[in-house]
Amino acid sequence: MLNFRAMRNFVVLGGGTAGWFAALELQRLFGTQASITVIESPRINVIGVGEGGILNLPGALARYGIEEAAFIEATGAVLKLGFEYAGWNNGREDDVFYHLFHAAPNAADGSLVDGVPVDWAMLVANGVGVQYAESALPLIRNNASQTETLGVRAALGARLPTSMHFDAHRVAAYLKRVATGRGVRLLEATVRDLHVAADSGHVTALRIEDSEQPVPVDFLIDASGFARLTLGRRFQVPMRSFGEYLLHDRAIPFYLPHPRANPHLVTRAVAMNAGWMWQIPVQERVGCGYVYSSAHLSDDAALQEIEARVGKVEPVRTIRFEAGHFDDVWIGNVMAVGLASGFIEPLEATSIGQMLGQVLTFGELVAGSAYIVPQTSVAMFNERNRVDWMGIRDFLRMHYDVPRRDTAFWRDVNALKLPDTYATLKACWQHRLPRSADLQPYRQGNFMHFEATSWISVGQGTGVIAPQAAAADLARLPRESVVKSHQFLVGVKSRFAL
Length: 498
Known about the structure:
The chain has 16 helices and 26 strands.
């Protein structure tokens, strides 16, 4: 049992996006009744050259009382409408598919019939990209300005859901100002060691450099990034690797100027010889990076490939990582968040999305337990976190389930075994479209990042989901629903001259 009512000293080890969001959650939970301290090391820099959120980012800002306009002004953020994938099927940049943010079809307005998103099914059955069902596409194709996009969103409301692209350095600095303005204490120091009670195994204090006075701890949130000072270095908790399903373990970040008059409204993922390149616009520039497999490409060769495609760049540094997560992220009175708890390549912006989901779930668990949390709830929290990562792993694995075979990397990644959970679903999706019920194993009562329509978007783009699967669903629906959706298809083809 953890009695949060009796706790007074809450410490977040590490700042950055994860650390400051965690501090804001602690401040929301405990207010002025407790001391909340964020320890930032002057030796550690924030990782990130352009980052993006998914649809839980706007909700997180609202949860912590942060106005979107203020966030955008302070961080150089721009609106984001989804993801664009270039070259994933055949290596050519004119091979493009989209995963756009969208309002989920629902039975109330007739867009969902017997679990089938009717208009989407009609598009898939006729070989038309599901992005043509979305209000976001014209804005993306026309390179709409931020002002124009905001105006369309104001008119469409929930029919144009958005997230944001942003500069992680500026986000961390802004969240720091917000949190410290609400009473969170900032301590700039380097942690030397953790005091751990022999009887309980709980962290009781932190020793910091150049000070004989330890920092007292009742509950510790580790946001120390890849340093992973608690679970990894101190407690040596085992990690669950994704290496048997995904190959990437390197990234070279860099910057580019904007290639368009206005910031692109999607995260662009361009397939490369041994991986892919992200292109994330913020107000001033585009943050980029090549994510690749070191088994297929050296660091020098990766830089050469970047420059052969986009010209001379100045790489920030090479980031080395192993895709995976800790089996348990909450142990005793320590919880790891963000990179300190796990990491997978930045495809689909899952790192920040997963972190925000974890912080939200923690806050709801503590408050829902009346601030006295039984160990069974902690165990369930850890299980939900594992389930969350499993869903992310499978969704990203689907992105590499493509016909491309022109380089050693694309041949080898396609030869990797599929996770059993994904393989089982894929077999069903040869006969019908994904349904919400399919994804319950990824949910377990927790926030789930990608609903069935997201799997349809990517599955159609990669070829995992064939037109025949959608046609089989349509054949089971009432005739009037099919006729109406066929009229929708005719309208789409006319509007976009397909």
